[in-house]
Amino acid sequence: MDVSHILDPLNDAQREAVTAAMGTRLVLAGAGSGKTRVLVHRIAWLIQVENVPPWSLLAVTFTNKAAREMRTRIEEMLGHPVGGMWVGTFHGLTHRFLRAHWQDAGLPQHFQILDGDDQFRLIKRILKALELDESNWPPRQVQSFINKQKDEGLRPDHVDAAGDRYLTQMVAVYREYEAARTRGGLLDFADLLLCAHELLRERADILHHYRERFRHVLVDEFQDTNAIQYAWLRLLVGPNDNLFAVGDDDQSIYGWRGARVENIQSLQRHFPGSQVVRLEQNYRSTGTILKAANALIARNPGRLGKNLWTADGEGEPIRRYAAFNEVDEARFVVERIRKYSTEEGYRRAECAILYRTTAQSRLFEEALMNAQVPFRVYGGLRFFERAEVRDALAYLRLLNNPDDDGAFERVINTPTRGIGERTLDLLRERARGSAVSLWQAAQDLIAAGALGPRGTATLVHFVDLIRNAQAATRDLDLAETATHVIEAAALADFYMKAKDGKGEDRVENLGQFVETAGRFRQEVEDDEADPLGAFLSHAALEAGEAQADPFSDAVQLMTLHSAKGLEFPNVFLVGLEEGLFPHSMSAQDPARLEEERRLCYVGMTRAMHRLYVTHAESRRLYGKESYPQPSRFLREVPPELMEEVRGRGVSRPAAARAPVPAAAGVMGGGDTGGFHLGQRVTHPKFGEGVVLNSEGRGAQARIQVNFQGVGSKWLVLAYARLEPAG
Ligand code: ATP
Ligand code: MG
């Protein structure tokens, strides 16, 4: 049998992992060492050489996109399509499992997914109903409390509040939330795993079936599994099954969402006889990029430790750009990208801009738009999250399941129907009082004549709208159904009349939504009976990944978190400033600071040929102006690996002004003439400013000050006539 196509593109260590005998295998290796490649080749090996039927394979990846790529790669290698294999994210796979077992799990057949935004709204409604003040009970905090419990596998009954008043109240909200969610036939993201886990735990017959079926379970990015995901895996992988997990403790970046890097160690305990394979050769990045990333991550204590090397050359130095402000930063990055795509023939998609927080993307989007460079934002305001798309989706959800309270609340007054707050409050009270959905409450109130004539009329109108649309779309396909409700509800008119100037965009998005519905192909055979339900789940699960046309050549914009597992020839890591990255919320806590450093490591190791790191000397963010210090991560990269790019493209070695680590507040590499970094100073001509940096000594000493009026300037200290301000 010819297996050269599976084994030739691998090095010895990778080959060993791919051809390993059955049993539990853990591939523990650094970024770009071929973990994902090994996983894909392992699957091809199992199917072709070990004659494992695809039916008995289950592979977990980090995004739906990665899952699709994985399947394509395997099919290419084998030369034929492989059906029956389950490849997807934890959410996608458990969703599929629950769809198949809705009855066993005690779920309504058409259960829908409650995404983050809907969850947030639902929590707000519950706080209101319980008369809890949002300033004492911030909905975001409640939301993360609930999700955290679920990620740990805890239902309200399992949380031990033990006389703690705060906890007791939180649990009460959690309980109320669960009741509302259940009434609406909704599952939130954490529920997908929680319910799937409970079902496997409680039903020996189902557990047995799946253990028999999935003889091979493979997991990518294992370091980021949380408690409930790991518990689900542990159940699913029976004593006769084979687990193949790949991961990197240095890339664990979801601790804040409950991911437990300790699972890597636990795995070796829970699966006796498991063997660890290490890969050390990196195939992605240049020697320089790798050295920088290695040096950075070496600052973290308690690592499992590994050393990455590459057979490739050193490549170009890492380029560091100190932008005057955030606008200049965006301008610089876009200019470079244009240069690489027009002069060097890189595709735009080979350039990525990576940032710490989504709020940073807007300026880059603007700069790209002005320069007429196509781009694609991942994880920003995703297509399925836009207000108009969510409105249209909410109508579809109501058609699918009128008891969906989230959808009901969303569209009862969109477009405006003159249903007053009072009527709505009555509805909510009724729903809560008799533990029914808002939809049911509406029928009850109408029947009881409990509303005034106007209230009744408007409500009847709404109920009829939904009922009629249900009847009218029974035999229509998805795109036709979408078109029908959008027209019946007169959504386009509503957006065009709104005075936010976005009417046309919104209507265009509605058009795109109809098209998406038309193109939608169900990936899951079990869902065939219910295309609308499948589409709605798809929308909920896909939100958060791509937007727009995935085939056009566009610059890639995303947060560092969503860049995991990806690679790009040119990477721009932006906003490397104290307070932004590392994030201010993490700077005080050593564990979180280490996670930020891992995030920076993930970002740097995405780069294949070129890495840019940028920071701004002044930044306006969330409406506030600040003069941030350059990120400590910049200092943790050996200066000889970096080259400073000055404005208008003049380069000089960064080493000359590389700040040395020193006592807090004093980070300049040179003589500061008694001023300290961050100090406010005044200059007779330039006015007031903040000391940002220094270099050189004695007569050569220069100091960099960011002046409020004229921006950042380097001044020769001896002549600068600077005074401390105030
Ligand atoms: P990450 O930790 O970032 O997820 P990874 O360990 O999963 O990285 P891969 O994405 O599998 O690494 O591989 C990194 C790059 O190196 C890919 O472009 C891959 O095709 C290439 N690569 C991996 N192994 C080899 C090899 N033996 N020969 C040539 N190229 C390889
Ligand atoms: Mg990978």
Set out the fold topology.
Blueprint: H1 4-7, H2 12-18, E1 25-29, H3 35-48, E2 57-60, H4 64-78, E3 86-88, H5 90-100, E4 112-114, H6 116-129, H7 139-151, H8 165-183, E5 186-188, H9 189-202, H10 204-213, E6 216-219, H11 227-236, E7 242-247, H12 263-270, E8 275-279, H13 287-297, E9 318-325, H14 326-343, E10 351-355, H15 361-370, E11 375-377, H16 387-400, H17 405-411, H18 421-433, H19 438-448, H20 453-472, H21 478-488, H22 491-497, H23 503-519, H24 531-542, E12 555-559, E13 568-573, H25 590-604, E14 607-621, E15 624-626, H26 632-635, E16 642-645, E17 651-653, E18 680-683, E19 687-695, E20 702-707, E21 711-716, E22 723-724
Parallel strand pairs: 1-7, 1-8, 2-3, 2-6, 4-5, 6-7, 9-14, 9-16, 10-12, 10-13, 11-12, 13-14
Antiparallel strand pairs: 14-15, 16-17, 18-19, 18-22, 19-20, 20-21
This protein binds adenosine-5'-triphosphate and magnesium ion.
Keywords: ATP-binding, DNA-binding, Helicase, Hydrolase, Isomerase, Nucleotide-binding
Family: Belongs to the helicase family. UvrD subfamily.
EC number: 5.6.2.4
